Amino acid sequence: MCSLSFFFLFFSSTMIFILGIYYLMIDYSVFVEWEFFNLNGSMVVMTLILDWMSLIFMSFVMYISSLVIYYSEDYMFGEKNMNRFILIVLMFILSMGFLIISPNLVSILLGWDGLGLVSYCLVIYYQNVKSYGAGMLTALSNRIGDVAILISIAWMLNFGGWNYIYYYEFISGSFEMKLITMLIVLAAMTKSAQIPFSSWLPAAMAAPTPVSALVHSSTLVTAGVYLLIRFSPMLDTYDFGWFLLLIGCMTMFMAGLGANFEFDLKKIIALSTLSQLGLMMSILAMGYPKLAFFHLLAHALFKALLFMCAGSMIHNLKDSQDIRFMGSIVNFMPLTSVCFNVSSLSLCGMPFLAGFYSKDLILEMVCLSWINCLIFFMYFFSTGLTASYSFRLFYYSMSGDNNFYSSFSYDDEGYYISFGMIGLLFVAVFGGSLLSWLIFPVPCMIVLPYYLKFLTVTVVVLGAYFGYLISKLDFSQNLFSLNMLSFVWFAGSMWFMPFLSTKLISYLPLKMGYYSSKSLDYGWGELLGGQGLYSLFIYLISYIQGWYDLNFKIYLLTFIFWMFVILMLFFL
């Protein structure tokens, strides 16, 4: 089933990509409406939009999915229910496809809810306590966004339909559309894990690694960004950009800082995804939806490869994810190491790899835009932090001595894993330049002074050096005061967000539930309810029974009395 799914998705992605390029070249869009039925003048219509943006994004999702499914053949080897796993992943891709080609809020909700439900099934796939906890956090965080879209559907009924594309010009000044845009921004913030909904994204790492490669590159987390790209005219109209810009920059900064103090390989890459989502959100908020879309596609390519390489390492290290147990992997797994370092450099914005074309352009547009010092600092400092945690990851995993079992050996033998990584390696190197020529056929001429033009490269180099310094630090030395350790704890735990979004919210209701259960269900409820009535009846029965046992005359009198009552009722 893996091979069949791979060939079908690979062939479909190629065809859709060619069609997307053709639509982009001739600037063409197809709008399809399919009426299911008409009831009392109300039409139930399925609507699809096929333009260059939806087609190219769909082809990228299918290409990455095909390689992830092929890769799963090795990674999930020994899984009893392999076909079930592949079917769940295919349902996930189908939900994302619904979301991509829908200009209608009702059909968007189908894909949106489908992503939330199937992601829950994938996060709890390994069925242990940690997975269940992560699954509930993921599902409940995403429910907030689902409810926001449901409310926006109810409000949009005022306009006579749910195809928001029809109403851009018509309702630009209406209060209802302002409210709908606010709800859409809230929904996008939950799905793309912006502050304060960030804690579910690293928790979702409980899913199998092939799923993480799919979820964190092109599907679940990018859904919010894609929805806001579609709604970007309304963001500009109602001036919500400043809010989204601040939230995006804070998310980017928080995730970059947290990744520098994390030791779990998958969580570091998850925080890196969170950082890039903040970058996409903030550049979208500044009024550059095409640039945000360009970075979304480029990021999908190298992030899927990064997760695949991490999965290859974890698979060979017998499911160990702690980077402190790695070291000298380059000697044992040269192919994985090459792919890992290429994707890591692409993430940092190394010139002429996929990430460089979008990231460098974004940072130069930031230099050119009218923004304040805080946002400017956050952008460039977060870029430095990206280079920092990437170098730290390289330092721990590739250099030095091997810290795993001394008698243990591992290699790049897995054919399916190697094929999946090589398939993404080429697009992670050449994909950025190809996309930049397609999406921006006329190159953007950005004229900046020398010190700003070289600021990006300087920040990346300084960030890498900072990462080296962090790797060499020993937190057990007396050099660090309690304040420094408190800062490390604060930064490493995502500004305490996992505690705030779990224990803070659930502690009070659970405490109230405990007290009410103790005093009502097990206290007064028992005394006055079932147990109390049971005790009362037992007491009355034993009392009456005592009467009958002590005096036979009372027993006969009672019997005659009840016979008299029955006869009276009979004759009446």
UniProtKB/TrEMBL annotation:
Residue ranges constituting the NADH dehydrogenase subunit 5 C-terminal domain according to the UniProt record: 389-570
Places the protein is found: Mitochondrion inner membrane
GO terms (BP aspect): ATP synthesis coupled electron transport; electron transport coupled proton transport
Transmembrane stretches, start-end: 7-25, 45-70, 82-101, 147-165, 171-190, 211-229, 241-261, 268-286, 292-314, 335-357, 369-394, 415-439, 451-470, 482-502, 522-542, 554-571
NADH-Ubiquinone oxidoreductase (complex I) chain 5 N-terminal domain boundaries: 38-85
GO molecular function, one term: NADH dehydrogenase (ubiquinone) activity
EC number: 7.1.1.2
Catalytic activity from the UniProt record: a ubiquinone + NADH + 5 H(+)(in) = a ubiquinol + NAD(+) + 4 H(+)(out)
Domain NADH:quinone oxidoreductase/Mrp antiporter transmembrane span(s) in chain numbering: 102-385
GO cellular component: mitochondrial inner membrane
Cited Pfam families: NADH5_C (PF06455), Proton_antipo_M (PF00361), Proton_antipo_N (PF00662)
Recorded topology in the membrane: Multi-pass membrane protein
Keywords noted in UniProt: Electron transport, Membrane, Mitochondrion, Mitochondrion inner membrane, NAD, Respiratory chain, Translocase, Transmembrane, Transmembrane helix, Transport, Ubiquinone
Protein function: Core subunit of the mitochondrial membrane respiratory chain NADH dehydrogenase (Complex I) that is believed to belong to the minimal assembly required for catalysis. Complex I functions in the transfer of electrons from NADH to the respiratory chain. The immediate electron acceptor for the enzyme is believed to be ubiquinone. Core subunit of the mitochondrial membrane respiratory chain NADH dehydrogenase (Complex I) which catalyzes electron transfer from NADH through the respiratory chain, using ubiquinone as an electron acceptor. Essential for the catalytic activity and assembly of complex I.
Family: Belongs to the complex I subunit 5 family.
Name this polypeptide is given: NADH-ubiquinone oxidoreductase chain 5
